[in-house]
């Protein structure tokens, strides 16, 4: 077996592993525990394969019905490893099974008669897997945090048992990985001020599909969804998780000055399964919607599949991202790529992607009055709304396409592999 992969578009490159223990790149996005990280790994994996890398994306198998291997495109597949029970486990309990994940990864390499000279790990659990693998073979480790415990624990009321372990692993990874990829300058700053002053960090943002988002006009999107062209549509897209701040948005709409004069419509898109924790948050939000008398103007379309997403973003007048904390926030760039201005919390990656007064507005997190004022300003001025949307689209095409992001990652991998010849793959034969 050869470990070199070649496609038509570029020079042959090496086999690399993206490790995302809890964020399966092949599953439906938008449900509980499946969000930006899953999208990031899948899109980066596919775009890297287009650039000639042979990409295997490793994740934990969570149901016996799931296939062990999913082929996404030439040179890009998801590989599911059984580590711990083949069942859903809450994120904070997965770390107990990380040693088994390492063993399964090594066993997979033996079966394939190949090693991976570079692993790009995602989220702290996978960073530990990467650090362990380094004890077994020469390896370049690149790591993306997706969320930093040191930041997250500042905004939650209950600190979980796993916190001390997570913080220690995050520090150790920052200090030992060949390169950390921060997705915004704000995230890099948090790493430096809250985690460690040691370690090498590059800033490479997340991306979005600028061909899919932005391909449909507002008018045709509204026709497809049966939404009156005169309505003012306010959109949320994302998981039902208290950290996402959906409550702030609902309360903002409740106190909008346009409520009596304009025909407002609030759409809260995202999935949930009965009995799961996102179902609990959804029930809570529905309760607030009812309490504020907004039931008539609010719609919950549930999980939005890829094609529907592009239509909803295009149909909206404004997309609101009211998170308490957001390491990057893919929804904001998807909306902006769809030419829809964004009102977002003035936190984390949203401060990097949304340019206030140019592509949308920022408001302090949890401040419903400030969100109401920002939403009203945009909705009250259709001409300005359009200018913001156009500037947003231009910024996304220029700076945030997956292809551009993958090109930056590809350059980084090539540089690191050249600098670390010990991590070059061994000649292996099947
Ligand atoms: N998403 C989706 N369908 C939904 C809700 C969300 O496909 O119904 C996707 C959304 O388009 C985005 C991702 O889930 O790509 C959420 O990423 P983000 O970074 O905004 O938040 P996270 O879930 O990582 O906290």
TrEMBL record:
Keywords, comma-separated and alphabetical: Glycosyltransferase, Transferase
Gene3D superfamilies cross-referenced by the UniProt entry: Glycogen Phosphorylase B (3.40.50.2000)
InterPro entries in the cross-refs: Glyco_trans_1, Glyco_trans_4-like_N
Location of the Glycosyltransferase subfamily 4-like N-terminal domain: 35-212
Entry's Gene Ontology molecular function annotations: glycosyltransferase activity
Glycosyl transferase family domain segment(s): 218-394
Protein name: Glycosyl transferase, group 1
Source organism of the structure: uncultured Synechococcales cyanobacterium
